[in-house]
Amino acid sequence: MIFDTDILSMLVKTGKVDLLKKLFPESSLIITFEVYNELLRAKEAGYDFVDDILKQEFKVIHLDPDLIKEYEQKKEGLKNLHAGELTSILLCKREGMDFATNDNKAKRFCLEIGVQWLDIVDILRLCYLKRVLDKREIEKMLRDIEETDRTRITRKERIFAD
């Protein structure tokens, strides 16, 4: 699983980034070097929550020359995607991996090129299905995410659907 910055920041701001180790084998916690750089820029801008992300055991992947070439070809036509998102999606496509993101533009591009994605609702659903968190804990986490990330999470009902 390759992660985008937005998912990681949501989880760490609520003190729940450790959920990823419970949901996914450690060897599958991956970020691209471009996402790593986004995190470093946020840290330089004074966002201390980044330290908790960087403490996690993410494997940081550098693009090889073929992926760099593909990135360069696609970036002009996809100005609405950040480098971290685009490189992550291209790597997912090549490696047959899933992408964790909340960005709607990134999700649309994933659909266009056949990459599976998960967002925060999907991750919380996995927590519920695998009994990593109970319903009450997930509801609290949803409130915490909306408050700390100043966002509104839609499709909440999907988390507890049968």
Would you give an account of this structure?
The chain is mainly alpha-helical and 162 residues long. It has two domains: 2-120, Rossmann fold (3-Layer(aba) Sandwich); 122-160, no CATH class. The chain is 55% helix and 7% strand. The protein has nine helices and five strands; from the N terminus they run βααβααβααβαβαα. The strands form two sheets. A three-stranded parallel sheet has the order 1-4-5. Strands 2-3 form a two-stranded parallel ribbon. It is globular. The chain starts with a strand and ends in a 14-residue tail after the last helix. The mean pLDDT is 90.
Write the layout of secondary structure elements.
Layout: E1 2-3, H1 5-13, H2 19-23, E2 30-32, H3 33-44, H4 50-54, E3 59-61, H5 65-75, H6 83-95, E4 99-100, H7 104-113, E5 117-118, H8 120-129, H9 135-148
Parallel strand pairs: 1-4, 2-3, 4-5
Count the beta strands.
Answer: 5
Tell me the number of helical segments per DSSP (H or I, 4 or more residues long): 9
Mean of residue pLDDT values: 90
Radius of gyration: 16 Å
Q: Which key terms come to mind for this protein?
A:
two-stranded parallel sheet, 9 helices, 162 residues, 5 strands, 2 domains, mainly alpha
Short description:
The protein is mainly alpha-helical and 162 residues long. It has helices spanning 5-13, 19-23, 33-44, 50-54, 65-75, 83-95, 104-113, 120-129, 135-148, and strands spanning 2-3, 30-32, 59-61, 99-100, 117-118. The strands form two sheets. It has a three-stranded parallel β-sheet with strand order 1-4-5.
